[in-house]
Amino acid sequence: MKKTAIFLIFILVVGSIIGTISYFIFFYNPNPQSTTKYVRIYVNSTIYGSLQTEINQYDQDVKNQGYLTSIISWSDTNVSNLRGDLINSYNTSLVGAVLIGEMPYALYDDESIGDTELAYPCDLLLMDLDGMIGDMSGDGDFDMHVNGTGDIFPEIWIGRINPECLNNLAVSYIQTYKDYFSRNHAYRTGNLTRPDNALLYIDDDWAHLQSAMLNDFNTSGYSSITNIYNSTITTDIDYETNQLTNSSYEWVHVMVHSFSWQQQWGPAGDGTQGITNNTDINSIVTQPLFYNLFSCSACDIGYTNNLGTQYLFSNNTLAVIGSTKTGGMWMISYFYTPLNQGKTIGEAFRLWWWNGLHGPSDIDSKGMIILGDPLLTK
Prior knowledge:
The chain is of the alpha/beta class. Helices cover about 30% and strands about 20% of the residues.
């Protein structure tokens, strides 16, 4: 009888553990937020006066979405002070922050999880407001991210709108901001549109995954998805000439090896099938509105003329998702499913971090970032 009871208790405990894990992976709704949603809009104080009309219009557009907002003219260059301001402002209604202009970012370098790269920008440290971060080595870069009073998952989202790491623009930075907010408003008011189509463009090294990737990308809900993965087709010429200039795509999800300044086509990213660099993107009249770049370090905002920022300020682009380091977005259905449900890019991005399978502890995830307006929807 005692052995039977012990066995039953063991079964109940194991079942409870398995059930809890399954719940967090498949059913948990992280950080349920109140129906009153609050957004903080930070603007670098040196550009605020020149962009007041555009910022006020953007603020009104966000209010029209149903959000409460605050516009903060910000001049502090210390990222810890920015994070402290977010923490002090945090309550159940704060959903995220938009950072406009040159704003501080955290540099992260954690060798304890096997990360051997140089420190990289890590906006997760601004999104996670109840975790604990620190510089244990004293070299000025953050190298600790632990649960603290809560966990290491994000409570809010962050999006950055800043062309000032580009030195190859045809117009001034102020005009570049104005142009961006003009097309942002046009999209929000239905005057900048694309058909309900998307492109999944997979270079050689991931072509064998195309079926699984397409299955996950289908959760985006686009009525038509063009899936290109043939190694003889995925080249710089096809991508630049036939795809980036194609106004029938609203969203592009591309998988190709890269550095911060160029995407390299061909096996192992050897560039034998061409290179798409920042100068190419700058010179192309790009047509799609949104990009998810599975391209290592493409969105390294600390690098002059990085690809992600170049994409963002090329003609029609509104938002770019990518990584500041090696890696990119895996488990993409956890992002595209909420996006298809009408959630904003920022909220879909925040929920993606909570998938439990490829979250904040994963080296490939840590550098993920949103460039552009995180409050847009597809």
